[in-house]
Design a protein that fits this description.
The chain has twelve helices and 17 strands. By secondary structure, it is an alpha/beta fold. Strands 1, 2, 5, 6, 13, 14, 15, 16 and 17 form a nine-stranded mixed beta sheet that branches. Strand 7 and strand 8 form a beta hairpin. The N and C termini lie far apart (86 Å).
């Protein structure tokens, strides 16, 4: 016969069994361990600009009375916008460092003092692509000198290789814990490859026509790249829309696994859009493509060459794994040419009132350049003041 004490013991045991999972009972009625908090999803806000050029007048303006050079004033009004990101990318369209006894020069054979890099670095630029049509303006030796100077000042860079090993090494950069992989190409080097050391063609310059996109993207992914950014120098100069072969190359890049394409060379801004393409397995991939970011700073006079954009986008980790590109916007910029200075400014910032010293005629042209960009770019791209 069951006593009251035994009955109460059985009822207590039954209650415990209904409240605790079997795993807890198996572990001696220990409670479930406290779950670790989920790690926050990673993201990085990136900005990119087009051509950093140094024409003859820019050299003259930068030259100081003692013979040295200072380019900081040319970047003074836009430095905050360049630095307003986790990582900033630009196209360096000049060779750096004096070659033999030749003087520094602007168009058509660009060669600029090392001091330019101080101004660019201090303005907030982190990565420089060297793959462009002017990178052999001082031959292979000048390209190597440029890469040496860029590296010495702490820039990340790509597109110009000083050795076969450098060409084969995956170009990876970590930003906010995200591993970015870079592919930098140029369509041409103005025929200078035929007048330079044979190393140019063997490994020195990354030419677009020789790119094996699927293999090169795969190599970056195998090395740990979580987001792949391609920076091609392509297309025809002085066009506001890409040629059909440029559009085809962009689709090939997206199909190969490139997430973002940042184009340059036309010296004019071209559309920015998301492109879809099928990869080798038939899966649809989506990538952000800026066909041309336009000029950033220069002394060109042709219409539309006086404006550019600072493209902004965020690479965002997703709950499902992988990354997506979001929050696309841009700072519209205008290159303000003065007698004593050439400066890049945010045109949207000065729509209501010009910067000090700007003439009414120049202010009107700056405002016109803003509306030209607003009409060219898709309405989904947010215009930013700075």
């Amino acid at each position: 016969m069951m006593t009251k004490d035994k009955l109460w013991a059985l009822l207590a045991l039954w209650a415990l069994c209904t409240l605790l999972p079997m795993s807890a009972l198996a572990e001696g009625l220990a409670p479930n361990p406290t779950l670790e908090p989920a790690q926050p999803l990673r993201s990085a806000r990136i900005r990119a600009v087009g051509d950093l050029m140094v024409h003859k007048k820019q050299l003259e303006i930068a030259r100081q009375s003692d013979g040295s050079y200072d380019f900081h004033p040319q970047y003074a009004l836009i430095a905050d916008s360049l630095a307003n990101a986790d990582y900033t990318i630009a196209n360096l369209e000049t060779t750096i460092g004096q070659y033999e006894n030749r003087p520094y020069s602007g168009y058509p054979m660009f060669n600029t003092p090392e001091n330019l890099l101080d101004a660019v670095k201090d303005a907030g630029v982190d990565f420089l692509t060297l793959a462009n049509n002017h990178m052999l303006d001082r031959y292979f030796e000048g390209m190597v000198r440029t890469a040496d100077c860029v590296e010495a000042r702490g820039f990340d860079f790509g597109g110009a290789n000083r050795s076969p090993e450098e060409k084969e090494k995956p170009n990876l950069v970590e930003v906010n814990g995200i591993r970015l992989g870079f592919l930098c190409y140029t369509q041409m080097t103005n025929g200078m490859e035929d007048w330079s050391n044979a190393a140019v063609k063997e490994y020195g310059v990354n030419y677009l026509r020789r790119a094996d996109l699927p293999a090169e993207v795969a190599r970056l992914r195998d090395a740990g790249a979580e987001v792949v950014i391609a920076i091609p120098h392509w297309g025809e100069e002085y066009f506001r829309h890409p040629q059909s072969y440029v559009v085809a190359w962009a689709q090939k890049m997206v199909a190969a696994g490139v997430d973002v394409v940042l184009g340059s060379h036309p010296h004019m801004v071209q559309p920015v859009e998301f492109v879809e393409a099928k990869d080798a397995d038939g899966a649809v991939r989506r990538g952000l493509v800026a066909y041309s970011l336009g000029n950033f700073i220069d002394n060109m006079l042709k219409r539309y060459t006086d404006s550019g954009i600072i493209l902004e986008f965020t690479v965002q980790e997703t709950q499902e794994g992988g990354f997506t590109v979001t929050d696309v916007g841009c700072v519209p910029v205008y290159c303000w040419k003065q007698d004593a200075n050439i400066q890049t400014v945010s045109s949207l910032k000065y729509l209501d009132a010009p910067p000090e010293g700007m003439s009414s005629g120049t202010w009107q042209r700056m405002k016109d350049s803003y509306w030209e960009l607003r009409d060219l770019l898709d309405d989904s791209i947010v215009m930013l003041q700075e």
